[in-house]
Amino acid sequence: MAHPKRRTSKSKKKMRRSHHALLEKAISVCSYCGEMLISHRVCSECGYYNGRPVLKSAEDV
Question: What is the pLDDT of residues 25-38, one digit of tens each?
């Protein structure tokens, strides 16, 4: 089994892990009701996604 010849320095280790940081969630506005929501998700307030109704609300039933 292969073993590293030298210890990985702190600098090299941190450079390799530079892409592991958490990103902020992309927030957008619902085009139907104007509520803030996470991108590419159904609006929890009105049940619309991309301008079309996806979920049935209590008012529709």
Answer: 999 999 889 999 99
- Taken in order 44, 50, 52, 54, the sign of the CA dihedral is negative
19 DSSP 8-state letter:
G
Instruction: Give strand pairing partners of 37.
Output: 28
Dist. CA 61–CA 58, nearest whole Å: 5
Q: CA nearest 38: which of 25, 55, 57, 24?
A: 25
**Burial (CB count within 10 angstroms: exposed 0-12, middle 13-18, buried 19+), residue 43:** buried
Flag whether pLDDT at 17 surpasses 90. yes
DSSP state of 56: -
Q: Rounded to two decimals, what is the model's pTM?
A: 0.56
